[in-house]
Amino acid sequence: PLAAPPPAPSKAEVAPAPAAAPAPAVSAAPVAVAAPAPKASGDRVFASPLAKRLAAAKGLDLKGVVGSGPHGRIIARDVDGAKPGAAPAPAPSASTSPPRQVLSLEQMGIAPGSYELVPLSNMRKTIARRLTDSFRDIPHFPLTIDLEIDRLLDARQRINSLLGNDVRISVNDIVIRAAALALKKVPEANASFTPDGIAMHKHADIAMAVAIDGGLITPIIRAAETKVGAQIPKEAKDLAERARSMKLKPEEYQGGTFSVSNLGMFGIKSFASIINEPQGAILSVGAGEKRAVARGDAVLAATVMTVTLTCDHRVVDGAIGARWLQAFKPLIEDPIVMLA
Question: Is the four-CA dihedral 1, 24, 179, 9 of positive or negative sign?
């Protein structure tokens, strides 16, 4: 998923993560961390016969090789990636985890010459680092609900007919406005974790994920709760256009208190983004589609949109996240409430 993205060229996308990320978010399984090869007895190492032959040919001391085979057994690919004369790896203590072993594609069975290597841009390096840090270090969890948006679509059509062709309000513009108002109703969700305490933000600065060549960036609509009428559509369009042409100033995409990542235009039904630090949550918006819904004893067709709120459990626990979604839901399902 387009997850929430990093602040610098960083949960988008049309979001994203933004962040990150989101998960999204669906993330590839991490490479398993191999434990040091156990000693069977004395100085004997646990290694396959092929690994021993390869080590002898390289003049390699297997005592300094970390095994990635079953039960820490040293196998051929471990020897291929090791250098002769390397110092034995220290055994990890009970309180620390062993370092992550990064294997080359060849060590994982990909034949040399069967792929082309595209160098990492600075933006892609930043995205990789920040979203890896976020996914690994933040205790995150998703909350998912369905929203009926027939009234929203009708209101959007009527508003656009009044505005003419100069300004067009999108579903994402309405989502941004509703998210900001919901943050004002539930200020505990508009927060960031810091080592010194929880930062409670005074304004809802909404980062919107925008997909650009080579990565993702999250331009920010500052104090979105104060924007009315066509302000958000105009600002969102300007930020997105300048994001794609790489003309944003750092202060226009760094920071933010909450992210919105929308993949509905790609037909994605639902997803979870990666949190874009230092924000406490990111909303992932799926596509609106006709579904059967119950009305008493009757089953009717309605346009339903699935959204997922990914929360930083250090700041936004389950109850706070649920309250935010309860505040967000009526704003989307009956947009006229936003005028009250």
Answer: negative
**29-51 pLDDT per residue, tens:** 333 333 343 444 445 677 888 88
**What distance in Å separates the CA atoms of residue 262 and residue 29, rounded to the nearest whole number?**
24
Q: Are 310 and 20 in contact (CB under 8 A)?
A: no
Query: How many CB atoms lie under 10 A from the CB of residue 287?
Result: 18
Residues 326, 154: contact at Cβ < 8 Å?
A: no
CA 85 vs CA 65, 89, 92, 163: distances in Å: 11, 12, 21, 73
> Catalytic residue positions?
313
H or E segment and range at residue 281: strand 281-295
Other CB atoms closer than 10 Å to residue 26's CB: what's the count? Answer: 11
Q: Count other C-beta atoms under 10 Å from residue 101's C-beta.
A: 17
Residue 207, beta-bridge partner list: 220, 259
- 218 pLDDT exceeds 90? yes
Tokens encoding 22: 């989101």
Q: Which residue has the tokens 């509703």?
A: 178
Burial class (CB in 10 A: 0-12, 13-18, 19+), 103: middle
* Distance, C-alpha 292 to centroid of its chain: 30
**Which pairs from 102-110 meet CB under 8 Å and 24+ separation?**
102/31, 103/31, 103/68, 103/77, 106/80, 107/77, 107/80, 107/81, 108/77
Q: What confidence tens digit (pLDDT) does each residue in 231-262 have?
A: 999 999 999 999 999 899 989 999 899 999 99
Residue 270 near residue 296 (C-beta atoms within 8 A):
no
**Phi-psi sector, 329: left (phi>0), alpha (psi -120 to 50), beta:** alpha
Q: What is the pTM of this model?
A: 0.70
Beta-bridge mates of residue 290: 303
> Please, where are the H alpha helices in 74-138?
76-80, 122-137
Q: How far is CA 48 from CA 17, 76, 188, 217, 316, in A?
A: 44, 7, 56, 47, 49
